[in-house]
């Protein structure tokens, strides 16, 4: 089975640095299914293609099989169809690239590049529609061509295999983790026994994108071979990582952006990162970092030289550390990030002096009577130059309710527009209430404040998420 990775980001031969495989020679590696070969059909400054060819050993394939029918040992598609065997080969041969490591050129690993992935024989139980549902929310353009059962007999129709081309501008590490997780999901089968350790594999590979994926529940179920206990564990951990109710993870994400749908959690992080870039911040606090979704995005940008994730929950920090793979992170990257346990309603002197602080979907988890204490701790004691705050717009909830008509999970009862999106929310504010609070904080603490929408802005009820940017004002002397 074959997979090719092509880039035209000049100099395209930098792909060799990212993959840790030199374009000038072919290399072979033993893997559990047989032998994986890596070679470069084309390696020029304007275009470079790396190919991974997996040669399956038929004897190894037969050993340990538990097919329901005897002929399964002799008649099967495993040597030819891209599925879990190819996924395992990717993780084995390109392990450093999957982790975002590039010792020779670390800036390359942190830079998105234009990539084209081709899988000539993708096993897909779900057809073209499933491929698009899985890859499009991750930023890929998808093109598929069905492989006929027999080109000589058109009446037999098409097989379940697709000649698939994915195109997108992504980090190479993200592209490889997408393939590692989603190839066996599309195939709907694995060539090895699924045990409890598969939960950790899924969460490590899906860190930063799986929790926000609209098909996260289906991905978890198929990746974990529909083993209910494992799926429940994975969904609970994903909920911790993205500040979402476990039950809500089983529901589809409401797409709020026309064209290419993008989960609201992703849109929030994109908006926050844009504000931080514009502020010129280099030392950043993620206050209430939870499972570390934003921390991963911050680490991906070299301009942020010091990143501190703060949360009151020790468990959330453990989830963040696992998702970021701190224990495997390179020394230079590891020096950029610190995780610390602290409550945002108490003054912490160590948080003073930073360029920017982010409270992304945090304030609504604080009892309203404790907000003055949070104000003092963040805007009075820590006093960063820029503070970014996001919170739900309760007025928009009627749109979620309309799209989720007849469904009660993920929203509490309480009247149109009054249901809370998360069970732990102490409150959710209208736009007027948020502006009143933010303007009061800015006036009392010497900040200017401006407001930005996050997500598609509805002409009647506004955006699903509201964002405030506080800029500290220098006192004239």
Automatic annotation (TrEMBL):
<keyword id="KW-0694">RNA-binding</keyword>
<dbReference type="InterPro" id="IPR013217">
    <property type="entry name" value="Methyltransf_12"/>
</dbReference>
<comment type="similarity">
    <text>Belongs to the methyltransferase superfamily. HEN1 family.</text>
</comment>
<keyword id="KW-0489">Methyltransferase</keyword>
<dbReference type="Pfam" id="PF12623">
    <property type="entry name" value="Hen1_L"/>
</dbReference>
<keyword id="KW-0808">Transferase</keyword>
<dbReference type="Pfam" id="PF08242">
    <property type="entry name" value="Methyltransf_12"/>
</dbReference>
<feature type="domain" description="Hen1 N-terminal">
    <location>
        <begin position="1"/>
        <end position="239"/>
    </location>
</feature>
<dbReference type="InterPro" id="IPR024740">
    <property type="entry name" value="Hen1_N"/>
</dbReference>
<dbReference type="InterPro" id="IPR029063">
    <property type="entry name" value="SAM-dependent_MTases_sf"/>
</dbReference>
<feature type="domain" description="Methyltransferase type 12">
    <location>
        <begin position="285"/>
        <end position="377"/>
    </location>
</feature>
<keyword id="KW-0479">Metal-binding</keyword>
<dbReference type="InterPro" id="IPR026610">
    <property type="entry name" value="Hen1"/>
</dbReference>
<keyword id="KW-0460">Magnesium</keyword>
<dbReference type="InterPro" id="IPR038546">
    <property type="entry name" value="Hen1_N_sf"/>
</dbReference>
<keyword id="KW-0949">S-adenosyl-L-methionine</keyword>
<protein>
    <recommendedName>
        <fullName>Small RNA 2'-O-methyltransferase</fullName>
        <ecNumber>2.1.1.386</ecNumber>
    </recommendedName>
</protein>
<keyword id="KW-0943">RNA-mediated gene silencing</keyword>
<dbReference type="InterPro" id="IPR024026">
    <property type="entry name" value="3'-RNA_MeTfrase_Hen1_bac"/>
</dbReference>
């Amino acid at each position: 089975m074959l997979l090719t990775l092509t880039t035209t980001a000049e100099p395209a031969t930098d792909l060799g640095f990212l993959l840790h495989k030199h374009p000038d020679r072919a290399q072979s590696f033993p893997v559990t299914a047989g032998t994986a070969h890596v070679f470069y059909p084309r390696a020029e400054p304007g275009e470079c293609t790396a190919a991974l060819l997996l040669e399956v050993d038929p004897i190894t394939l037969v050993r340990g099989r538990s097919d329901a029918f005897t002929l399964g040992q002799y008649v099967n598609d495993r040597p030819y169809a891209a599925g879990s065997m190819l996924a395992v080969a990717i993780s084995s041969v390109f392990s450093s690239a999957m982790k975002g490591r590039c010792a020779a050129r670390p800036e390359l690993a942190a830079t998105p590049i234009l990539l084209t992935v081709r899988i000539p024989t993708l096993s897909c139980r779900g057809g073209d529609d499933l491929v698009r549902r899985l890859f499009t929310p991750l930023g890929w353009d998808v093109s598929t061509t069905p492989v006929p059962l027999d080109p000589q007999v058109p009446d037999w129709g098409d097989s379940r295999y697709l000649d698939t081309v994915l195109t997108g501008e992504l980090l190479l590490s993200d592209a490889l983790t997408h393939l590692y997780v989603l190839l066996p999901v599309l195939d709907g089968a694995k060539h090895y026994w699924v045990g409890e350790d598969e939960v950790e594999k899924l969460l490590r590979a899906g860190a930063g994108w799986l929790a926000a994926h609209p098909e996260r529940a289906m991905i978890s179920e198929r990746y974990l071979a529909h083993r209910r206990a494992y799926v429940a564990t994975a969904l609970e951990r994903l909920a911790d990582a993205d500040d979402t109710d476990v039950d809500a993870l089983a529901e589809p994400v409401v797409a709020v952006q026309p064209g290419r749908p993008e989960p609201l959690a992703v849109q929030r992080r994109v908006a926050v990162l844009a504000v931080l870039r514009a502020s010129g911040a280099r030392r950043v606090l993620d206050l209430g970092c939870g499972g570390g979704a934003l921390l991963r995005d911050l680490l991906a940008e070299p301009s942020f030289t010091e990143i501190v994730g703060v949360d009151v929950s020790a468990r959330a920090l453990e989830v963040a550390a696992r998702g970021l793979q701190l224990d495997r992170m390179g020394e230079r990257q590891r020096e950029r990030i610190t995780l610390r346990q602290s409550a945002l309603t108490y003054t912490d002197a160590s948080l003073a002096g930073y360029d920017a602080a982010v409270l992304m979907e945090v304030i609504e988890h604080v009892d309203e009577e404790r907000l003055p204490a949070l104000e003092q701790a963040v805007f009075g004691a820590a006093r960063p130059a820029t503070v970014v705050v996001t919170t739900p717009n309760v007025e928009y909830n009627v749109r979620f309710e309309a799209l989720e008509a007849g469904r009660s999970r993920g929203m509490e009862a309480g009247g149109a527009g009054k249901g809370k999106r998360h069970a732990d929310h102490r409150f959710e504010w209208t736009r007027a209430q948020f502006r009143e609070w933010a303007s009061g904080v800015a006036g009392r603490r010497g900040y200017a404040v401006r407001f930005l929408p996050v997500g598609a802005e509805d002409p009647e009820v506004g955006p699903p998420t509201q964002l405030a940017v506080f800029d500290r004002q220098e006192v004239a002397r």
